[in-house]
Design goal:
The chain has a domain of 66 residues. It is an all-alpha fold. 94% of the residues lie in helices and 0% in strands. The protein is built from three helices and no strands.
């Protein structure tokens, strides 16, 4: 799901970047404007879908990871590293 959201975001950014280029609009005056309008509306629709997906799926998942998993991983890493780093810290403190 996250991969799909990332692809949708990239396509909307690419579509929005096309709007900023004026070289194509100068060459194809009326025809170029029509394509810009279509791309702009597609980018807006894509952005709204991405925002909805991010709020409904990614935000709750990130909340779970940061509130529950991160402290547990931190405690585990601290316990494992203390076993190896404590003797070194004592030697450095003695100097």
């Amino acid at each position: 799901m996250l991969f799909v959201c990332a692809c949708v975001l990239v396509s909307s950014v690419a579509a929005n970047a096309q709007e900023l280029q004026n070289a194509g609009a100068a060459v194809l005056k009326d025809t170029g404007k029509v394509s810009v309008i279509i791309v702009k509306s597609a980018a807006k629709a894509t952005w709204s879908v991405t925002k909805f997906a991010a709020n409904t799926t990614v935000k709750p998942a990130a909340k779970i990871v940061f509130k529950k998993a991160a402290p547990s991983v931190g405690k585990f890493a601290l316990k494992k590293s203390a076993k190896h780093l404590l003797p070194i810290a004592i030697k450095v403190a003695a100097l």
